[in-house]
Amino acid sequence: MQFHLNGFTPGDPEIADPEERHNAAGAEGSLPAEVDVLIVGCGPAGLTLATQLADYPDIKTCIVEQKPGPMLRGQADGIACRTMEMFHAFGFGERVLKEACWINKTTFWKPDEKKPSKIVRSGWVQDVEDGLSEFPHVVLNQARVHDFYLDRMRKSAAKLAPYYSRRVVSVKPAAGGQSGSVVTLDRIGSGNNGTSEIVSARYVVGCDGARSAVRAAIGLELRGDSANHAWGVMDVLAVTDFPDIRCKCLIQSAHEGTMLVIPREGGYLLRLYVELTKLEIGERVSGRNIGQDEIIAKAQRILQPYRFDVKEVPWWSVYEIGQRLTDKFDNVPANADTAVMPSVFIAGDACHTHSPKAGQGMNVSMQDAFNLGWKLVSVLRGQSPVSLLHSYSAERRAIAKELIDFDREWAELLASAPEDGRKVDPAKTQTYFVQHGRYTAGTATRYRPSILTGASTYQHLASGFVIGRRFHSAPVLRLADAKPMHLGHAGGADGRFRIFAFAGAGDPAASGSAIHRLCDFLMEDPASPVRKYTRKGEDIDAVIDVRAVFQQAHDVLAVEKMPGLLLPPKGRYGLCDYEKMFCVDHKTGNDVFAMRGIEREAGCLIVVRPDQYVAHVLPLDGHRELAAYFDGFMLQQS
Ligand SMILES: Cc1cc2nc3c(=O)[nH]c(=O)nc-3n(C[C@H](O)[C@H](O)[C@H](O)COP(=O)(O)OP(=O)(O)OC[C@H]3O[C@@H](n4cnc5c(N)ncnc54)[C@H](O)[C@@H]3O)c2cc1C
């Protein structure tokens, strides 16, 4: 798609009339007096969480934002492969793929040895290693990411929309170990100044950015770098003879600093990140009065000998950031008794901040919310005890710490004028970029063993589905209709656990096969997690969605002889769900068993969490271990 040719216009480029490209509508009227979940902030973290909760009209969710309407331009733009996987699960991955700019190649530029004031290309790499994800690394304005979430929320069962022009001024968690908080908000904007509203919320989630009021209310602070780095960030439409302008470029000049060039959606727009200066401790960049002309002039000097003629600047900012982290991501003090339950959480920039160099901020923030969302759903719907919520801070803080360490190392490497006088070493930069591609792609996250992440006892049965890492999708054929598709796309961001049963070498349709025995256990045995945790009257896959993958070709497998759990009657008419079984796509040669190191003779079970992480690998007949896993954090339904 090409757009923005005659100037930047915010919103949906598929709508011809620029005036109609964005939907500014928020929720009307006063805030509800009582809610289950109050989300503070409509950034990527808040909107991811709200979208997850919006599928449950029985959960009363409210999302508030101090700004008067949705974001139209600016801020982050990098969307990691892992985030694309999540967007696909939320149902708008294809829209992002169509509209975004795909980053296929990254080039590296260094000072020319003969004339150091000029830059020359030092190398290039493929941006994402082959096979890392079925999705590319793309870039798209953060405002459009918000639009997709808002659209999905509007269309969801709860028809959720944000309450704009509301600023949270205080959060008072109930005293004496009671749950819930009282939140005071100011209505801001024309005609409303001075009006306050009060909301009682069982859970409050502060997705309110780096200066989070919710974080302050629970006595946490961001710790880390004592000084910030200032960056000039600019979206531009420009005419240039710089040859790599439609690639992502890391440019390290001899004396003018570092710059990142990011090609953007629409084919003409560019994002420049220009490193400006390190600030003194406590100093704010606003005090330096850096303007857009200064950033453009610096970019032009870095790009020498190339011409860079800026025609339009749709958005720019001078953005100051350090790598910082809070001690906890909830309101339970680190040394408190485990009986003390969390009721206030923080997510995204409210608990960790990153430099923009590795494009982490927006991506990690959304993954925080994806981790918390299904846990809140599970607790609020009575499927899990409140103690499950302890796992949010434990899991996400450990990941944030790792990513911040990576970000710090990467930022130091990119610093163009190292303080110790070292020279720019582009080869080192390029090697580091390739070695750490999994961090930037968002696929390096690995949760440690816990009640949610099983031990590695049976990891050898599926070496490519690493316990604690995200479920790495692979191509398969759907058995009932021979549709080629990705196994990981079999389910959405619907709060359900998935069990993928990879059948062993024998005929899975034969009575007494391991697949039949597994399904019999799951259907009949009182210890079965499917029986124990699904409510009466719900579809059999409402909580745990069981799928099977076979090694044989689709035309030799007898669909009609497969176990009833894999052909479940569902809904008010008891219609059969034919989409539970898959097989190897022998035509293309893409063999999921080979690609993911599945033990062919024995097969195995892969348990996948609602946020798409591999929770456990077990033998096909590990019925008791499977039951014990779910018993660790779920509540029996009557
Ligand atoms: C000016 C700016 C420029 C940035 N530029 C880049 C960039 O170029 N590249 C990059 O990678 N990252 C950039 N970032 C960082 C990136 O946008 C964040 O990492 C990402 O948005 C984090 O998402 P979040 O949802 O945690 O927080 P945010 O996106 O910061 O969202 C927080 C939201 O909460 C609202 N809010 C705050 N306080 C209250 C309150 N008391 N009551 C109600 N609402 C409140 C805010 O208005 C905001 O909408 C930028 C951030 C800022 C602020």
Task: Explain what this protein looks like in three dimensions.
The protein is an alpha+beta fold. Helices cover 23% and strands 24% of the residues. The protein has 14 helices and 28 strands. The strands form 6 sheets. A 7-stranded mixed sheet has the order 6-5-13-14-15-12-16, with helices on both faces. The protein has a 7-stranded mixed sheet with strand order 21-20-26-23-22-27-28. Strands 1, 2, 8, 9, 10 and 18 form a 6-stranded mixed sheet that branches. Helix 2 packs across helix 3 (93-99). The longest helix is centred in the middle third of the chain and has 25 residues, at 390-414. The protein binds flavin-adenine dinucleotide.
Cα end-to-end separation? 53 Å
Silhouette? globular
Helix tally? Answer: 14
Q: How much beta, percentage-wise?
A: 15-25%
Largest sheet report:
7 strands, mixed
Bound molecules: flavin-adenine dinucleotide
The gyration radius over C-alpha positions equals 26 Å
Q: Fraction of residues in helices?
A: 10-25%
Query: On the 0-100 scale, what is the average pLDDT?
Result: 93
* Low-confidence sequence ranges: none
The spatial strand order of the largest sheet comes to: 6-5-13-14-15-12-16
Task: For the structure shown, list the relevant keywords.
single chain, 638 residues, alpha+beta, seven-stranded mixed sheet, 24% strand, binds flavin-adenine dinucleotide
